[in-house]
């Protein structure tokens, strides 16, 4: 009975149409924005409903019926549109691009209001054997040595999206081990753990790994569990690009589960997939593996992007040992005859524990699309598949050169790195991975632009189209997902994973991150061959109560914030981020608690 009375009281106080004894002594301040008549998809997964949304300052004030005569500085007619929480990109690589252009063009146009950065390589720490990074922020030179310093820099430069970040294991390893592929000794592991703790105290939401990277292959499950215990003490998330997405993907998923179970921490697997043609069609078994772990109490989840091709580098075909010592050492080995012979044999036969992109696509050069910006001498190869490039490079040569020798030469000409899109997993497997309630959406993309300095290379279309593609293809056209479930996967589910307790839902008291789109028109337009195209159908985007997209046009506003994780007193395994103050303080419309 007591609960029912309290709930009724809260509802009556929060409602703008609640009865009162008379006019208030001090009329409320005008709303900054009122969005009227839209279909509200609030991020919970509940069915949509018609309602208005009122924003005052940086918070949502009302979700319900806003009186027609309510004063508002701006009114948006959302009839025929969907009003949703701003999309949270769980897997973004915009870290350094935001310091070039904080407008985040390709993300804002997708409806993204928060980017989660730092997959393996984060804004900090950069110290010890990893020198601080020099950047220019509004004409002022800065050297970034810590993750906190990175957060300060992006805020000083101005950003259109909010950002939160993991600390990358690549940074921690690099600060202590440099380019060495040696395993850290006990003292070095203590240094790595201290740097992890420092970054978490600087505001990192957790630790992110790229275990398939050559240097991190030397890390063991025991190492990850040891680092996980530092996370457990501070409530951080363990986000893992698992050790092998190909022939050993089952063992790699088991390892991620084991780290979570042994360390007692939350786990999020980065872009869950089966990237080896020999195992295509077995995604249901991966899902069952995760479901069994969850059934016994392991909090393991995952995210995906809605494409069947992934982005990496042609250099990933080169065996791990050849990368030790950095780019210069790799180039020296590529020029050495004996090293070439060893590399050829290992590329074609594989090495136990190594995820070999060449074998994962069955040695099919046609499944590799060059996405890099190339040197002038090789400019004609941009945007072409490797089978075509190899044929062009072999013209007039007799006998025809070994394709792997051509690969080595191509890499040498491009200083050891050529961005490449690999067609390595299937639509059927990807659809299955997308469906479970614990699998969310992340782009694995960056904030590029269709013109100016951020129009570069030949990027993956996910940089421009991830979230509209989910809504246009997988909700409207194929009906793979319900609208409400898709929105939840792009908003509150990611907020809950990252600890964003007052974002990701359309509720009074939440920060006013809002995306408004046309459900009949929203669609991605970027393709593998023509990536520099913005999506259609995203109409309005608000970040912290200010419009970054107005009727489909960027406003130039930079209202984004660095969301530094701040452990609450006695938090145990949970965490809150800055800005999550007492939502009840003097504001009746904020009586609904923020966060899942």
Number of domains: 2
The biggest beta sheet reads: 9 strands, mixed
pLDDT average, as an integer? Answer: 91
In the predicted model, the low-confidence regions spanning at least 5 consecutive residues are 1-20, 569-596
Helix content: 25-40%
**CATH superfamily annotation of the largest domain:** Metal-dependent hydrolases
- The counted number of beta strands is 25
Strand composition percent: 15-25%
SSE-based structural type:
alpha/beta
Task: Walk me through the structure.
The two termini are 24 Å apart. A hairpin with a 2-residue loop joins strand 22 and strand 23. The chain is globular and about 85 Å long. Helices cover 31% and strands 18% of the residues. The strands form six sheets. Strands 1, 2, 3, 4, 5, 20, 21, 22 and 23 form a nine-stranded mixed sheet that branches. Strands 11-12-13-14-15-19 form a six-stranded parallel sheet, with helices on both faces. The protein has a three-stranded parallel sheet with strand order 6-7-10, with helices on one face. It contains 18 helices and 25 strands. Residues 1-20 and 569-596 have low confidence and may be disordered. With 596 residues, it is of the alpha/beta class. The protein folds into two domains: 87-308 and 425-554, Metal-dependent hydrolases (TIM Barrel, Alpha-Beta Barrel), CATH 3.20.20.140; 313-422, no CATH class.
List keywords for this structure.
TIM Barrel, alpha/beta, six-stranded parallel sheet, about 600 residues
